[in-house]
Design a protein that fits this description.
single chain; about 400 residues; alpha/beta; Aspartate Aminotransferase, domain 1; 2 domains; 7-stranded mixed β-sheet; 3-stranded antiparallel β-sheet; globular; binds pyridoxal-5'-phosphate
Length: about 400
């Protein structure tokens, strides 16, 4: 077993420094630092090819991209969104003067529940803002059908969904091509990082051009400003790093998949622990490994969280608290606990375990052994004494341990 380094929920991937130095040299030579420079253009092109999408506009981060995405679609009034996300999702609406309306999540995918959207639509509703939580694709067809019926825009917070594909018409296609726009995050903690960064995926060149203007203060040429834009531009430094990172991301996702499989093997059949079903007909990115710790585990989620922390394993409660519980949102009628029973139950049970490419198998085993020890089960010392448990049948949801029915 390796020395017991502290384990965080993630550890940012970086390429070998030597691979990045020539790019830095070029930036120093050309003195082109920002404003749609050569690396920015190359990175947009390379991302389109890698992800299988048509048009990308790079941003300084995903939050700025979300704010600009809503602005570019002229979303006003109310936007229907999920409470089970990172706070930036709802904040981006508020930055546009739009009221978020929270709708509960699906107990299996933990994504916005399309069956509950229609009841929340009012004359003020102009858009739906779902997220592909942990990279699990939303029910994009059901959401689009509602959007079409009520003439609503759909803006996906796809911060978790880098590289995620789903089966469509006999082919694996990017999930990022759905809705009017999708927004990616390249923050340090995400599957693919440029230190900080983000992007909007747009369906056509005209929409991308409008977004490009909005992220550059609204300038359309040297002297003409046509909108109250912001500075959302990605720098040449981040774009160059992205070009190098792109060469390594497939390998990183492959290793994440192995870690995911090992966790599933070690945690299968543990009473009280529910694993999320791998999405059917999709190519996931294993961006997070979330477990739900139910009442019959014996001890609470927070007890497990503390037990891990005492062993220097910093698991994270993504997403707890719910966005709708933060002070600027909790007064909204849609934030009422009775409106969001599934999201509430999940937020109280969820724990995201460490997952990152350089995490070793022995460290995964250590995480699991600390979890099991937390409820009083005998600790096992190493791989050799691990119980040989059958892996979880794919697609089978062990929901019996989660009291979600309401
Ligand atoms: C990380 C994250 C964001 C914010 O991304 P930044 O690039 O840090 O601004 C937004 N939404 C979700 C769901 C996220 O996980």
């Amino acid at each position: 077993m390796s020395d017991r380094r502290p384990l965080y929920v993630t550890r940012p991937e970086l390429p070998p420094l030597e691979e990045f130095l020539p790019y830095l040299k070029e930036i120093w030579d050309t003195r082109i630092l920002s404003n749609n420079g050569p690396f920015h253009q190359q990175f947009e092109q390379a991302l389109c090819e890698h992800l299988g999408v048509r048009h990308i506009s790079l941003f300084t981060n995903a939050t700025m991209a979300l704010v600009t995405a809503l602005q570019s679609m002229r979303v006003t009034g109310e936007v229907i969104t999920t409470p089970y996300s990172f706070v930036a999702t709802a904040h981006s609406a508020m930055w546009n003067g739009i009221k978020p309306v929270f709708v509960d999540i699906d107990p299996v995918t933990l994504n916005l529940d399309p069956r509950k959207i229609e009841a929340a639509i009012t004359p003020q509703t102009t858009a739906i803002m779902p997220i592909h939580c942990y990279g699990t694709p939303c029910d994009v067809d059901a959401i689009q059908a509602i959007a079409d019926a009520y003439n609503l825009k759909v803006i996906y917070d796809a911060a978790h969904a880098f590289g995620v594909r789903r089966m469509e018409g006999g082919e694996m296609r990017s999930v990022l091509n759905h809705g009017d726009l999708s927004v990616l995050s390249f923050h340090a903690t995400k599957v693919f990082n440029t230190f900080e960064g983000g992007a909007i995926i747009a369906p056509d060149a005209k929409t991308k051009q409008r977004i490009d203007h909005l992220k550059n203060f609204g300038f359309i040429n040297e002297t003409t400003v046509v909108a109250t834009g912001i500075n959302g531009k990605m720098s040449e430094f981040n774009a160059a790093l992205g070009l190098v990172q792109l060469q390594h991301v497939d390998g990183a996702i492959r290793r994440r998949g192995e870690i995911d499989a090992l966790y599933r093997k070690l945690l299968a059949d543990v009473p009280g622990i529910r694993l999320l079903a791998p999405p059917a007909d999709a190519q996931p990115n294993h961006s997070y490994f979330a477990v739900l710790i139910g009442p019959d585990f014996g001890v609470s989620r927070d007890a497990v969280y503390e037990a891990l922390k005492a062993e220097q394993i910093m698991a994270r409660r993504y997403f707890y608290p719910l966005i709708s519980d933060f002070p600027m949102y909790r007064g909204l009628p849609s934030a009422a606990p009775a409106n969001l029973p599934i999201a509430r139950a999940v937020a109280d049970q969820v724990l995201c375990l460490p997952i990152f490419p350089s995490l070793e198998d022995a460290e995964v085993e250590r995480v699991v052994s600390v979890m099991l020890a937390a409820r009083g089960q005998a600790v096992f010392g190493g791989p050799s004494v691990l119980p040989d448990v059958p892996s979880q049948p794919s697609g089978l949801l062990r929901s019996s341990t989660l009291a979600l029915s309401t």
